C-alpha cells in the first residue's frame, strides 16, 4: 500500500468521528438530530475544504401521531407495530380487517393470492436488504396497493429483534394504505391465526403532514484545476430505534476521513473533489433527488463519478454496487489492488441509496456496502434497535477508508476522456 493510503486508513480521528456522529442519536429527518449532525460534520469537513456550503431542499415530512395493532379473535392480543414513514392514516377509530398471509410478499406471492388480497390487511415479511434477489419493502407495499389491499403489515424476518423502521415511499397527495412493521413473533401469531381461519386485526395509524419541511444538504469542496468533479457522498439521516451507526454513521465517518486524506491529492492537474452529505435519504432518497434535480444541467454534467458510502462496515466483506456502469469495474478492481482490500462487484442498479439518483442522471455512481449477500452478518441490525456503535469493528471502518481513497484517487488521476468513458453503458 502506498504510504499516503496507509496513513489515510490510520486516520487518528476516524473512531472519534464515528462515535460523534452516533452521539447525535438516530438522526431521523425532522428530529433536528440530522441537522445538528450536519452542522458538526460540515465544520469538520471545513478544516480540509476550500469551500463549504449547507443548502436545504424541501421534502414531504410526516410524523406518526398514534398507532396500534390488535389481533382479534380467540388468541386476541395487542401486537407491537411501527408505522412506515408516510403511511396512510386509518379512520380515527381504526380499521377491522381480515388478514391475508402473502408469505414473503414477492411477485409470485401476490399472484398466488390474487383477489384474496382485496380489502384485507396483507401480511408480508421483511428481507435482508442486501442480496441480489431481494425485493424491497417499498415494492412489496406497492404490490399490496395494486392488489387492492386495505392495509400492509411487514413482519421482521429476524426473531427477537423487535420492529424495524422504514419508509412507505408514499408521496404527499398520493392515496395509499395504512402500513406498519411488526415483530417477527407478531408475524408468526398472525400467520397462525390466518392458518386457523381467524386472522383478523384492528389497526390504527394516525399520521400528520408537516408542511414546508426542509432537509439539509452539506457540501464541502476542494477545488482542482480541471473542470470535472469527483463526489464522495453519504447520507446523514437515519432511523431512531437505534442510533443509525451502521446506516449510516459508518459512511459519514469514512467519508470525512477519506475527504481529509484526499484533499492534498487535489491540485491544478486534477478535477475537484466534493463531499456531499444528504438528509431525507430514508425518505425514499428525497434529499439527493432534489439536490440533483435543482442543479443546472451544465453543473450536473460536471460531476464525473459518485462514490456513495452507505453501511460500509458491519461485516469484513465489501461490495461495490456499480449501477449498470460496467466501466466502473476497472476502477473498483484498481482500488482493491492498491488498497489490498478485496471488493466484490454487483453490476445491476440497486436503487437503495443516493447513488441511484446520480445514476438516473447518467452519472457513473456506485455504492460501497458491507455484508452484501450475507444475511447472517452484523449488517442485519440495519433499521433495528440493534443499529448501535458496538456492532462495528474498527478494522472494517479502516479498510473502507482505504478503498474509498483508492477509488477517488484513481478518478482524480484520470484524464477527462477516461472519466467520460466511465459513463458508457
Ligand atoms: Zn442507508
UniProtKB/TrEMBL annotation:
Which InterPro entries does the protein's record reference?
Answer: CPQ, PA_dom_sf, PA_domain, Peptidase_M28
The segment(s) forming the Peptidase M28 domain are 221-374
A GO biological process of this protein is:
proteolysis
Task: Show the stretches that span the lipid bilayer.
Answer: none
Cellular compartments per GO CC? extracellular region; lysosome
Q: Which UniProt keywords are listed?
A: Aminopeptidase, Carboxypeptidase, Endoplasmic reticulum, Glycoprotein, Golgi apparatus, Hydrolase, Lysosome, Metal-binding, Metalloprotease, Protease, Secreted, Signal, Zinc, Zymogen
Q: Which Pfam families match?
A: PA, Peptidase_M28
Where would one find coiled-coil regions in this protein? none
GO MF entries? aminopeptidase activity; carboxypeptidase activity; metal ion binding; metallodipeptidase activity
All copies of domain PA, residue ranges: 101-190
The compartments listed are: Endoplasmic reticulum; Golgi apparatus; Lysosome; Secreted
Q: What is its main location?
A: endoplasmic reticulum
Database matches in PANTHER family: CARBOXYPEPTIDASE Q, PROTEASE FAMILY M28 PLASMA GLUTAMATE CARBOXYPEPTIDASE-RELATED
The subunit structure is: Homodimer. The monomeric form is inactive while the homodimer is active.
Q: What is this protein called?
A: Carboxypeptidase Q
- Originating species: Achromobacter agilis
